[in-house]
Protein: Adenine DNA glycosylase
Amino acid sequence: MNFKSTDNQAFSKEILKWYRTNPRELPWRGTTDPYKIWLSEIILQQTRVVQGLPYYYKFVEQYPTVKDLAEAPEEEVLRLWQGLGYYSRARNLHFCAKQIWFERAGEFPNSYSELLKLKGVGTYTAAAIASFAFSEAKAVVDGNVFRVLARVFGIETDIASGKGKREFQELADQLIPQDNPAEYNQAMMDFGARLCVPNKPDCVNCPIQGSCFAFNNQLVNDLPVKINKTKVRDRHLHYFVIRCGESWVWKKRSSGDIWEGLFDFPVIEKEKESLEEGLAIPLKAVEPKKFPKKYRHILSHQRLHAEFSEIEIPDENRSSLENWAEQEGYLLVEEEKIEYLAKPKLIVNFLTDQGF
Structure:
């Protein structure tokens, strides 16, 4: 049997049959609580399950209800998110929780179209919540689903294009069984995550191998098609770790750049690799001492190259340091409180290397 886009029942039955003998035990499976479903989906955006699972447990423990999350300070939410990256997700998560609690009396919208109106909730997340919590027959389409559909049905449209997204969503909505959307969506996600993986998919044990266009035409490694038009740029950062006794100088990153709302050190950025310029501190301090290790940190559209220098300020110059920090918008933080600051992974890695 070869699937066509009209063979809805045949395709769905095969996917569900595989899933029922190969289910993943995940804490948000089997629940219809939209809060926990929403929380898991936001955490798992751009994140593998194995990495996101500990964060899900931490958030559920710290904020068992949407009310708890809505009333939490943003810095606390960012600190709990630390290490997951894509921090706009955490800010949107917090904003959305407040939206639901303060504007909707704690009630989640119960339809796909209304869920899309929430901050940070896109088509995939809205479809997941709508189907898992409210049994709406709306198909989820993420990277895993793109891959399965492209390979099985031989779709060569660029998945990053608007046309591709519409084409895949239309097909996915045709295939989803009206009477069992939640289980089917979970099955499709798992099938792509565990069997029809990007590299070296397990075609030998695939139950729909005989009907797969890509397998039968030696195109498994060519589908799906994604044309990456995003240019990755390099940024060179020179951080200054300024300490006076047990106090460290930190700065909170503002909007308009990476890591908004997180804390890092005073920094000079250059367009080239050589970072010899010092930081203008109007104090009699010792010469900056460079840490030998340089750091490279990869973001979605940027490669960060960082080096760190240490500056020790004598205790007798503390008042001058405080005045300078206040003028520059920096904060003096006692060493024992540093762990409570929400910091980007790059800074966490540096501190870990220093045994902090």
